[in-house]
Amino acid sequence: MSGLLEEFDSWLRPSGPAALVIREWLVPVEGRDGVVFPPTFAASKDGPFKGGYNIDRFTDGTNVCLVDTVGSQANRIEPIFAAEPYCGLVPQVVVVAGAKRVNLLEAGHRAADALVRCSELQEELQSAFRAVQSGNAGPLARIAPTSLVFGVWDSRDTQAKLPRLVASTIRAFNVKELTRSAVYIPATDYDKSGLLDEAHDEKIKGAYAERGFAQVPSSATPGGVLADGGIRRDAALHLATLRTLTVDGSGEDVLCFRRYVLGLALTAFSFPASGYLRQGCNLVQDPDKPIECVAVHRDGRREAIALDHGHVIAYARAASKAFDLDPDREIAFGKGPDREVPFDAKAARTELNSGADGDAKKAKKSESRKRL
Length: 372
What we know:
The chain is of the alpha+beta class. It contains 12 helices and 18 strands. Strands 1, 4, 5, 10, 13, 14, 15, 16 and 17 form a 9-stranded antiparallel sheet that branches. It has a 3-stranded mixed sheet with strand order 7-6-18, with no helix packed on it. A two-stranded antiparallel sheet has the order 2-3. A hairpin with a 7-residue loop joins strand 8 and strand 9.
């Protein structure tokens, strides 16, 4: 056990690598020349982006298309810690909101999510975030350790902010955009057959179309892309950032804590995050291009490494066991318990009211300045 725990200690030393990097080439399940559907984004209110696919175009004629964002990749990977064989590595914290049970691992803003903030965990999380601001990440690791791995910002309360240790993004290169057209034809002609009143104006026609009682044409909408330059997932585990995390206690306590976080980060980092992303975007590894996995050192040297996901899980389990609460320690330390807490609607209403009061005060102050 001790040998396994010490296996990656060189990465935790100040002289260790700056980061681990994976480059993984992907192809659509339909084949290398298959059509891929990237995510569509809303138009910017003030900027030039008109909505649709996020494609950056360069003066040399090349382009890069965003296939899966860093936030989306994190939200795909983090929930694995709620299921076997990963669930024993972190506390399973569930918030019961009415008839719904939401695991903290599924909350969009992690430990800073409104659902969790307005629960019995409110004061405990607030205290944990304040401890982070003082340089002690131990209390947050007891409740929500994956917030240390994927980053968190308590933007609506303490303003505590932790960067991502693991970041993954999928991009397609030199894409050609396609369009598609379609038309919905209802099962029968409702107005002409007398089943519904005849639509005499555009408003009624629009209402019929919206409810499926009239034809709805759709022309030249985004129809996916062809990735002539290939599709690649770039992932990084920022060891230099991990080494800035610390806890109150001895040097051995800090090492034990960092081993635990490293185990979680390596588990997330080595997890294959490709596969089904959305309708029209099911990606697999390119069998003709091997995965590149390297440790990047401070002098720029890139050292090839091999990470077996099964072995990483074994390391993470050993580190988690060593990190568990030890009653002989003089400080609160270790992975916290699984628990289920109710959503506090009263706390949510209080927060909403205080927010509205704050907005009203800001508006009144702004109006006073205008008059002056």
